[in-house]
Amino acid sequence: MQRKGTQHESFDFRARFSDPEGDRRARRKPAAAARAARSAKRKASVVLELLRGADLESTSRKYGVTAATLTEWRDAFLAAGAEALKVRQEAQLDEQGRRMKSVIAEMAMENELLRERIRRMEDEKPFLRWRSRV
């Protein structure tokens, strides 16, 4: 709608309300997204490279990650490996414990059956005594 005496100008919404700083910020990855972009496999390969003897500073520059972050990754990697070994040992101990319990249960059952058998035999001939041959 135009009024008399005024010219209608085309209204460019983007030009008028755009934030040049905002456009650049939208294109940059936030720090959390950048951290999430590093997959576990990628981190593991970097840590393995460090464990094979690569220099911390050069690896830090190579992957664009701080030396402190690489140290955290390495410590977490080693802790997880140690924990996995503990879990495996605990599983072996649990399995050994289950086997021992089954052996003990079997022996207890045999003992109970033998006691019952002895009791029956004694009930049939209560005065039977063993004599020595001396």
How would you characterize this protein structure?
The chain has helices spanning 13-17, 20-27, 31-37, 40-51, 56-63, 67-124. The chain contains six helices and no strands. The protein has a domain at 38-124. The longest helix has 58 residues, at 67-124. The model has no long low-confidence stretch (mean pLDDT 76). The protein is mostly helical and 134 residues long.
Summarize the structure.
With 134 residues, the chain is an all-alpha fold. It contains six helices and no strands.
Shape: rod-shaped
Tally the helices: what do you get? 6
Radius of gyration, taken over Cα atoms and rounded to an integer in Å: 40 Å
Outline the biggest β-sheet.
none
Helix-strand blueprint:
Layout: H1 13-17, H2 20-27, H3 31-37, H4 40-51, H5 56-63, H6 67-124
Helix pairs in contact: 4-6
Task: Spell out the key features of this protein.
single chain, 134 residues, mainly alpha, 6 helices
